[in-house]
Amino acid sequence: MHARTRKKQPVNPAHTLPSAMPVAVYQGGGEVAVEQRPVPPIDAGQVLVEVSHCGICGSDLHMIVEGWGKPGFVGGHEYTGVIAAVGGGVDGWAVGDEIVCGVSPRCGRCRGCREGRPSQCDNRDGSVTDADADEALAAVKEIEDAGAVTYADAEAGRLQDAS
């Protein structure tokens, strides 16, 4: 696995997350509305990311414009942010780390993931278009710690084959 060179944002020790957040939710029929939803809890092995930027890619457009998504779908699987909380058993990440996320579902442990080729993950379970989990068109997103990549790794081009 690549050594994690972390870029940190200053963290306000008094910073607390709100209990609710705005989320862009697919309503059906090509309509998206902003709703208030609870900030998701995190489990062991997960981090909570305050989303700073989220892209809208072709998959999102298919889900919304062409109706591939089910009402209630939250898109946005290509995003950046800052780690806001770290679950138990997570090593190598800290609150304040700036990260790039969601380029491809991956385990972070197999050969493809360790070599920086997440689209070649041996343990990949489906794709972003058939995931049931909410994605990052929201203020906060919970992810498995293996789903995050440092800015340094992203800038070094270690995600060039991501799908």
Percent strand: 25-35%
The CATH topology name reads Quinone Oxidoreductase, Chain A, domain 1
Low-confidence stretches: 10-14
In CATH, what is the homologous superfamily?
A: Medium-chain alcohol dehydrogenases, catalytic domain
How are the strands ordered across the major sheet? 6-3-4-5-7
Please tell me how large the radius of gyration is: 16 Å
Number of domains: 1
Number of continuous helical runs: 3
State the separation between the terminal residues, measured CA to CA.
Answer: 19 Å
- CATH architecture classification: Alpha-Beta Complex
Mean pLDDT: 79
Count all strands and give the number: 7
Indicate the structural class. Answer: mainly beta
Task: Describe this protein's structure.
By secondary structure, the protein is mainly beta. It has one domain: Medium-chain alcohol dehydrogenases, catalytic domain (Quinone Oxidoreductase, Chain A, domain 1, Alpha-Beta Complex), CATH 3.90.180. Helices cover 10% and strands 28% of the residues. The protein is built from 3 helices and 7 strands, in the order E-E-E-H-E-E-H-E-E-H. The strands form 2 sheets. The protein has a 5-stranded antiparallel sheet with strand order 6-3-4-5-7. A two-stranded antiparallel ribbon has the order 1-2.
